[in-house]
Amino acid sequence: ILSLRLAFKKLTLDDIAISSHPKRFYTRVMDFDQAYLHLVVKPNHHLNLADVFKVEDPARVPTEIQAMHFDASPEQEPPHAAIGLVRFNDGRVDYSDLGIKPQLSTSVRELGGTVRGLSTRRDATAEISLSGKINRNSPARLSGAMEPMDYQDHTDLLLDFTGLNMTSFPQYAGRFSGYRIVRGKLNMDIHYQIDH
């Protein structure tokens, strides 16, 4: 059972190309209006996004999905997908961390921005520029680049937020500072970089 929740009010695709032999999907622009995603860090510290790529029981996989299976051999090319530009408008991401006690939940609202160059090609690099508000009032921005198919080979992301109310995160604040925080705001820039 997948624990991933994804929804959107409107999805618009521009210039679509699909072929079954070889299996390929391409669209120039994908627009999400009021998209919603629930990210969960489970008690075993794994992200629920990983569930999308894991099959517990092959017998329960729909035949349409089974048809996309391929053998990694020179004769049979893997499915290829590419999206030139993904745009988000007024999205929302809910985040829950079930791996700490007590558990943490927060949300990013008014999520907007773009992801350019999404592709299943091994050497493809996606450029990310997203912004929103944590708990409705603290501006946050994520920008940079990463390889979608192999983030461990190249990831260079910058996350910055300003005016984050520390009392909204007593679980994290208390755990990592060692003190109970009564009031205060946090500004932070985090540079996350991997080069293999």
Low-confidence segments, ≥5 residues, pLDDT <50?
64-75
Query: Per DSSP, what share of the residues sits in E-state strands of 2 or more residues?
Result: over 45%
Give the count of helical stretches. 2
Using the alpha-carbon principal axes, give the shape.
elongated
Rg value: 19 Å
Distance, first to last CA: 33 Å
Order of helices and strands: EEEEHEEEEEHE
**Fraction in helix:** under 10%
Number of strands: 10
Average pLDDT confidence is 80
Sheet with the most strands, sense and barrel status: 10 strands, mixed
Main structural class = mainly beta
Topology:
Layout: E1 5-7, E2 10-20, E3 23-33, E4 36-41, H1 63-66, E5 80-97, E6 104-119, E7 126-134, E8 138-146, E9 154-165, H2 170-177, E10 185-195
Parallel strand pairs: 3-5, 4-5
Antiparallel strand pairs: 1-4, 2-3, 5-6, 6-7, 7-8, 8-9, 9-10
3D structure, described in words:
This protein has 196 residues and is mostly beta strands. The protein has two helices and ten strands; from the N terminus they run ββββαβββββαβ. Strands 1, 2, 3, 4, 5, 6, 7, 8, 9 and 10 form a ten-stranded mixed sheet that branches. A hairpin with a 6-residue loop joins strand 6 and strand 7 (126-134). The longest helix has 8 residues, at 170-177. Residues 64-75 have low confidence and may be disordered.
